[in-house]
């Protein structure tokens, strides 16, 4: 399954996608530092066996404003969707994630999972996450989750006790946090992301 990668602000991103029977889509959205973005994405799974693997990454170290709205509709049974969004927000930036998984009444055997995790780098940064499930079928496996927090001070202490300077230790923590999404990206884009964390 090919991974379609879209860098918001550089690439034209589709707003509506439809997956029919047996179709698979792997898609990754990237928002780099300095980019204000408001993205609305709707994906309809309309045929049995359709599968969506959606990843996203947003980096907002300054005063950026990012708003992500993702709606995934399971219209028929036997489909799978997975979403993983990760972000780092610093300065006075604001980031918002609204995600809704809708499962229609006849969409039995649906598997749908959604996660949004954000690291805050300053006390003035703000992140809001609103993952939602709207389920009208009873034979499904669905979950959603969200976390917002700061870099782990115990991990930072451990790295520093091994002789790693604080700035490098913080960079390593951020790289590890983003790794599940970054590994989906081409090497050149991954390197650009890592360089932006310094």
Write up this protein.
- The protein has helices at 153-161, 166-182, 187-196; strands at 3-7, 16-19, 24-31, 37-45, 51-60, 65-74, 80-89, 94-103, 111-120, 126-135, 141-149.
- It is an alpha/beta fold.
- It has one domain.
- A six-stranded parallel beta sheet has the order 1-3-5-7-9-11, covered by helices on one side. A five-stranded parallel beta sheet has the order 2-4-6-8-10, with no helix packed on it.
- Helix 1 (153-161) packs across helix 2 (166-182).
- The dominant shape is elongated
Return the structural class. Answer: alpha/beta
The string of secondary-structure elements, in order, is EEEEEEEEEEEHHH
**Proportion of residues in β-strands:** over 45%
In order across it, which strands form the biggest sheet? Answer: 1-3-5-7-9-11
Counted beta strands: 11
- Describe the main β-sheet briefly: 6 strands, parallel
Low-confidence stretches: none
- Helix tally equals 3
- Tally of discrete structural domains: 1
Radius of gyration: 18 Å
Distance between the termini: 33 Å
Helical residues, percent: 10-25%
What is the averaged pLDDT score? 95
């Amino acid at each position: 399954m090919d991974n379609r990668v879209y860098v918001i602000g550089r690439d034209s991103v589709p707003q509506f996608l439809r997956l029919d029977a047996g179709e698979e889509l792997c898609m990754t959205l990237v928002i780099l530092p300095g980019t204000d973005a408001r993205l609305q994405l709707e994906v309809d799974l309309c045929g049995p066996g359709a599968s969506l693997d959606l990843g996203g990454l947003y980096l907002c170290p300054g005063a950026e404003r990012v708003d992500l709205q993702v709606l995934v509709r399971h219209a028929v049974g036997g489909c799978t969707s997975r979403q993983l969004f990760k972000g780092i927000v610093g300065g006075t930036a604001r980031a918002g994630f609204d995600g809704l998984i809708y499962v229609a009444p006849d969409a039995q055997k649906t598997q749908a999972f959604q996660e949004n995790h954000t690291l805050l780098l300053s006390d003035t940064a703000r992140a809001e996450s609103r993952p939602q499930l709207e389920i009208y079928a009873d034979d499904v496996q669905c979950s959603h989750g969200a976390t917002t927090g700061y870099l782990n001070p115990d991990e930072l202490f451990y790295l520093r006790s091994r002789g790693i300077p604080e700035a490098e230790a913080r960079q390593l923590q951020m790289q590890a946090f983003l790794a599940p999404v970054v590994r989906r990206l081409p090497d050149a884009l991954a390197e650009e992301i890592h360089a932006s964390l310094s």
